[in-house]
Amino acid sequence: MSSAADFSAPSRRSPALPPGPGFFATFNFVRNPFAFLDDCARRYGDWFTLRVPGVAPFVFTSDPAAVREIFQSDPAIFHAGKANRPLGAFMGERSLLFLDGPAHLHDRRLILPAFHGERMKSYTATMRSIADAAIDRWPIERQFAIHLAMRSITFDVIMGTVFGLGNSPLAARIRDTVTKLFALYASTAGTLFAVPAMRTDLGRWSPWGRAVRLHREFSSLLFEEFRSRRQEDAPERDDVLSMLLRACDENGLPLDDEALRDEMLTLLLAGHETTAASLSWVINRLLANREIAERARDEVRSVAGGEIEAEQISKLRYLEAVINETMRLDPVIPNAGRELQAAVSIAGRELPAGVVVAPCIYLAHRRPDLWTDPLKFNPDRFLTGRIDPYAFFPFGGGTRRCIGAAFATYQMKIVLARILARVELKPAEGYTARLERRGIAFVPSQGLPAVATSRI
User: Fold this and answer.
1) What is the pLDDT of residues 410-445, one digit of tens each?
2) Less CB within 10 Å around the terminal CB: N or C of the chain?
3) 118: which DSSP letter?
């Protein structure tokens, strides 16, 4: 006999949900999500239901027709903000990522200009100099962790281009607090913060208690920076924070401090952790495919020669294809999500209100009916013709596509171009990358150990 909480059972009030693994089996999704998703796809097909403690059931789908309908859906019924709420533990619930309806549209209009494609060009020199400084510090003929190196680069890029922080004592305190907060989020305990039961403050030495106090300290420091920046009144500053502090809506109203704080924390976490993870997976693929790595290196040399400039970034088409092919096979986020506010029919399947329908990035990117030889790493597939946005969507889709997608891709191209131009890398002997969860992203195991054999 089914309980009232069993969403998979038929009832008079709502349609049946697709079948899926039991409650306890779903914990494997936290431990090894991609192997778990592969197993679910083999057992249940294009649709299946996952149950995670404390949140609504997730109905996963890799059906391209369903993905199209979801991304083109009515945002009044398909709420992405509510579906993303488990991540609110990491970023703050006033962030654009967790808003729906008019509030989402309002804040997105204010924030989007800071990430317009043309804005990226002004960040080229900063991104390049940060990448070069990091590469200069890499040891020669001694093993080091690529993922940690990428986290260092992307953190410095965010601090420089998004926060516009220099070398003031306040900037140093913000960096120190954020570093401690992110280290906690990336820890084993922090990984479980997405589960509501793990967010219990048992004092300053408990994991969530430490997170609460670090977040409180971060807020105080950032609000102080807001006040200082407004008093400074420097219209020439072009970092993202300065632009957002100047941004006003049609009524002349700016973002309030709490919303701006949560947005900056989201940009830090999403723009730092996920981009570092993607960069690490790209380097892992290049280390395993030497011919592809040399072809990418030849393109960088041909296009850029010495230091890469803004007008050359768009010409690195093969390098961009390498990035895209890596994001296809090694997505750092496995799914998008929309919480249904009413019962709907999606690709002929009836779903009740209250569940989260989740286009599965990982499974859609590996469908043999969408991708020829889908498990083969072949960047050339991104050089011929237009890629269907409902078959390839590492940054989500529709009106909820990641606002920082252009920023992330631009940064990755610069960092990888400088690595290819300046250093020879080889994988650590005997190493094979496995999946590990770090905070909100999935990264190569052991930090992706590698060796720089020489500088070029």
Assistant:
1) 999 999 999 999 999 999 999 999 998 887 789 999
2) N
3) G
Torsion (CA) 6, 8, 12, 15 in degrees, nearest 10: 140
Domain count along the chain = 1
CB 322 within 8 A of CB 354: no
Quick one: 327 exposed, middle or buried, by C-beta within 10 A (0-12, 13-18, 19+)? buried
CA distances (Å), 344 to each of 68, 73, 77, in order? 14, 10, 9
pLDDT confidence tier of residue 164, bands split at 50, 70 and 90: confident
Residue 14 has pLDDT above 60, yes or no: no
Asked if pLDDT for residue 5 goes beyond 60, the answer is no
- Pick the closest to residue 132 from 452, 426, 416 (CA basis): 416
**Residue-range definition of the domain harbouring residue 328:** 90-333+380-455
CA dihedral 324, 281, 38, 85 (to 10 degrees): -90
Q: From residue 430, how far is each of 145, 185, 359 by CA, in Å?
A: 15, 29, 35
Task: Extract the tokens encoding 61.
Answer: 């789908």
Residue 338 lies in a domain: no
Cα 187 to Cα 167, 207, 439, distances in angstroms: 28, 9, 7
User: Residue 1: pLDDT above 50?
Assistant: no
Residue 305: inside a domain: yes
CB 265 within 8 A of CB 92: yes
- Please give the model's pTM, rounded to 2 decimal places: 0.90
Cα–Cα dist 7/47, whole Å: 14
Q: Is 50 part of a structural domain of the chain?
A: no
Average pLDDT over residues 246-259: 90
What residues contact 86, with CB distance under 8 A and at least 6 apart?
52, 55, 194, 195, 196
* CATH number of the domain encompassing residue 107: 1.10.630.10
Mean pLDDT of 111-123: 84
